[in-house]
Fold this sequence. Notes:
It is a single chain. The chain is built from eleven helices and no strands. By secondary structure, it is mostly helical. Helix 2 runs antiparallel to helix 3. The two termini are 36 Å apart. The mean pLDDT is 79.
Amino acid sequence: MNFYIRLFRFTGKIKKELAGKTAIGLLITATYILQAICMARGISSVFSRKDWLFLVLMITVSACCILARGFLIKRNEVVSKVTACRVKAHIREIIMDKILMLGPGYLSSVRSGNIQALVTDGIESLENFLVNYVPQLFIVFISAAFIVFYIVLLDPVVALVVFVGMLLAVFGPQIGMRFINKYILGYWQSYAVLNSQFIDAMQGMSTLKVFNASRKKGSELASDARRLYKKAVFETSISLTDSALITLAVSAGYAFSIAAGCWRVTGGHMQITELFTVMF
């Protein structure tokens, strides 16, 4: 956790961009919510035999939500790439200043492949966390709070079920994160070692050929690559298991909320229109 807190320091240069990305994300979520409400109202108007013009209006608003969401998603991707370029350039500048401050004595004691891997792939791996994960935290908590508040106005019992499902989806996978992180960290450490070895081999290829050691180095890299491949497959299976647990929690929360809504409708505590809103 301390590692993630330290990473938050790099967001200081992109606060405005992250705020804009969060706002766009909230607008995208709002289009989903508005579309769900319109679809629920439209379907309920069919059951209540309202004027067909109302159904047309709901369909039109839903279509506008879809079009607006497409535009917002495109804009969100543009902002993400621009923000990623800024923050990665800022981090690389910090690293280069640190290397220059340490002087040539430090560079002579470490492998050039490690330095290059850190400045290239090491920085690239931070993009998703700084540009996507951080804004998504605010989007999830704000939108979840609004959704739960809105469903509370419809029916408190269903809102409680939805809230419990959200908690399970967000915090349930955290139970096994220590176990999962161990394997993920091992994979990235192996990847960094192989990457630095490959860079060193490419830079020193002429020397390897002079001493007829290029084939031996190639076999060594191939063996390391096979080990990394096996770790990558295993790490992917672990990661997919974690994603499956999140999907299971979301699906279970949705199913139980619908079941609770049907129970409340049969008891006369909830209108069918409100049930449709929960469904969508």
